[in-house]
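debug: dumping io for the single-chain case to check the tokenizer round-trip. Nothing else runs in this session.
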Amino acid sequence: MRFHLRSEDSAGRFASSRRPRDWSVSSPSLTAYRQIKRIHIGTPYPMKISVITAVYNSQETVGEAIESVGRQTHPELEHLIIEGKSKDGSLAAIERASHDRMFLVSERDKGIYDALNKGVAQASGDIVGFVHSDDFLAHDNVLTRIAAAFEDPQVEAVFSNLDYVSQADTTKVVRHWATGPYSAAKLKRGWMPAHPTLYLRRSVYERLGGFDTSFRIAADYDFILRYFSQATGGSVYVPEVLYKMRLGGVSNRNLARIREKMGEDWRAIRRNKVGGVMTLANKNLSKLGQFVERQKS
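debug: decoded output
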């Protein structure tokens, strides 16, 4: 077995998105140890990155997701697989693709955002990011690029571009999401980074909490609005494609899902007091430009 099993129950470690409970996961002595560990013969110790993958019934694609993380050249990495007791062969696929920096938790959850919250609660890295079970990192040096952007201690968020690829042929790019740098004015006009490209310091989750599981589809957008409207540090936009996403996500499967997504987006906009009706309209209209960008490239 090349990976590590974590059998402890992580439920309840991250119960609230607004008032995180029991987020002091490291004791004073462990905190001191981490500070000492970063002093490595006079040179900065490579920052540790935690990558979280939530898995449920993804036997066909999860192996590629895991392998793309396992091949990363960045030395300090933990890959947390939060598997929700799949009914297909996902566990077997996870074992086939396993690597020695991977940790597996297999227990029932209440959906993808609950699973991601469990992963964040167990993460020990300085930086936290996500690779969803249908997707994969664009190349082997993605996390090295992310770590380099975090070398400035004032930076607490890093994000990049994303390609949507065909389910049948992942070499075929269908849409291209060029995020561009953050500004408060753009956030009010519907701007957001592609969530899977967003890496944050773990301290951000300790400060703001995680994903609000009352959202079924748009908890990531709600979190993005919550973070960028309250950010205390800088952000870095990496103008490269670092993430590949297969088309066919939950929020875009049919008209009913699209309508539900728009309703949840509107609730997120209102609760975070970022913009108004035009924010929602521009957010959806901006997707048309992703196809135009693809045709230009």
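debug: round-trip ok. Confidence is low (pLDDT under 50) at residues 8-43.
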